[in-house]
Write a structure and sequence with these properties.
Radius of gyration: 21 Å
Helix content: 25-40%
Shape: globular
Strand order of the largest sheet: 4-10-9-8-7-5-6
Bound molecules: 4'-deoxy-4'-aminopyridoxal-5'-phosphate
Number of strands: 14
Strand content: 5-15%
Order of helices and strands: HEEEHHEHEEHEHEHEEHHHEEHHEEH
Length: 436
């Protein structure tokens, strides 16, 4: 809590005078618990009073190797000596594209961007340009970025409990998004094959893209039911729809080739971001050659002043190279599993109904009797206790997200000792949350 960290508190007061709510992304604001961080190292972040936190927020997911990772930083420092922005083809961007193509089975070609939102937005434009159609289908509770086409029925709609079961509706999660945009959007229920089949029979020929988080990581980390992603693949083939995997969270995290590799289902286009740069702002669209080549003069525009700049491509080059040399994923799975098992054991011992979803490198925790299958089920879990628990955790020096729907992440710098310490603190935090 900020009041227990006087220097951080004073700094946050200063920030709020010049930055609305003192944050540069609305998702970071957490009232008196808003994190104010001076520095990070490995699996730890430190506030302005020197208080340390074991970090499972990891910058909302990107920091896959650890904060201030020497292998990544050294490459960036060496690269920037020769200039950072040329708006011209340079060495590191080609190396990054080559790494992605090598690691991700469905990718023939790559274009680089700077954020997850950039990548999904461009992927949607590309799908529309390629198919000549306008409609896009997304899932309830999925988040694909901060722009008008996708700010509908996102995790922020949770407390509004919008629509009825089986009748998903577009709920706009930001003022300023024109209502007209909803006419370009269809909303589906996660894992609901019947509903999707019905919708596609009616509108399939007008749909440009189905965009999907292969694990519903922004809504509890819900897994696809076995065969669900393949079902989407087949439906897209039937109707000539472009299947977009939003791998912003899963890419280079759940496996070297992300969800495409893990689930063995090939998307037409994939959006990558977070883990590919270990926290540096880089993203990518990758996909089939014929679709990617629609980014052609006179056809689909993809542009950016900073896309493929030296700073971020040097970082991604080092991050992706390191992943191919070291057993990063073995380690993530090991410490992540230790954490999942430990949380499960503590909650079971305290007789708290709970479910842990996702995979060791990225998992969600919901407090509920029945196992949530879709976002609406997540809405019905014990959110009050979950939210209180997250507050007690951050007070105890465990950094997660303020939103219980968001996943926990582990990084290569977490050790088994860090996990054991986390579990001790978790149990204390849980006791406190239960008393509130
Ligand atoms: N897609 C997914 C699945 C995400 O989780 C996010 C951000 N959390 C985005 C897209 C948008 O990425 P960014 O915040 O980098 O724009």
């Amino acid at each position: 809590m900020l009041k227990d960290s006087p220097k951080s508190h004073a700094f946050f007061e200063r920030a709020q005078k010049v930055i609305p709510f003192g944050v540069n992304s609305s998702h970071r604001y957490w009232g008196e618990n808003t994190p104010v961080i001076q520095r990070g190292e490995g699996a730890y972040v430190y506030d302005f009073d020197g208080k340390s936190y074991i970090d499972y927020r990891l910058g909302f997911g990107p920091v896959i190797l650890g904060h201030a990772h020497p292998f990544v930083n050294q490459r960036v420092i060496a690269a920037i000596q020769n200039g950072v922005s040329f708006s011209a083809t340079q060495e590191y961007e080609v190396r990054v594209a080559e790494h992605i193509i090598k690691m991700c089975p469905s990718v023939d070609m790559v274009r680089l961007d700077n954020s997850g939102s950039d990548a999904t937005r461009h992927a949607i434009r590309l799908a529309r340009g390629y198919t000549g159609r306008d409609l896009v289908l997304k899932f309830e509770g999925a988040y694909h970025g901060d722009y008008d086409y996708m700010l509908w029925t996102t995790p922020d709609s949770l407390k509004s409990r919008v629509g009825k079961r089986g009748e998903p509706i577009g709920h706009k999660t930001s003022q300023g998004v024109p209502d007209l945009v909803s006419q370009l959007l269809l909303i589906a229920v996660w894992n609901d094959r019947e509903g999707i089949e019905k919708l596609l029979k009616e509108k399939g020929d007008s749909i440009a893209a189905i965009i999907v988080e292969p694990i519903l990581a922004n809504a509890g980390g819900l897994m696809p039911e076995p065969g669900f992603l393949q079902f989407l693949r087949n439906q897209c083939d039937i109707y000539g729809i472009v299947l977009i995997f939003d791998e912003v969270k899963t890419g280079f995290r759940i496996a070297p080739g992300g969800a495409g590799e893990y689930f063995g289902v090939q998307a037409d286009l994939s959006a990558y971001a977070k883990a590919m740069g270990n926290g540096y702002p880089i993203s990518a669209i990758g996909g089939k050659r014929d679709i990617m080549m629609t980014i052609a003069p006179g056809k689909v525009v993809h542009a950016g002043t900073y896309t493929g700049n030296v700073v971020v491509t040097a970082a991604a080059d080092a991050t992706l190279e390191y992943m191919q040399q070291q057993d990063v994923f073995g380690h993530l799975n090991h410490v992540g599993q230790q954490l999942m098992d430990g949380l499960d054991e503590i909650l079971t011992r305290h007789q708290i109904n709970h479910h842990i979803h996702g995979l060791p490198s990225l998992f969600g925790l919901t407090l509920s009797e029945s196992n949530p299958k879709d976002w609406r089920d997540v809405v019905d879990t014990n959110l009050e206790l979950s939210e209180q628990l997250l507050i007690e955790l951050v007070n105890a020096g465990i950094m997660t997200d303020s939103d219980p729907q968001q996943t926990w992440y582990v990084c290569e710098s977490h050790t088994s000792e860090d996990i054991a310490e986390t579990l001790n603190r978790f149990e204390t935090a849980l006791r406190k949350a239960l008393q509130k």
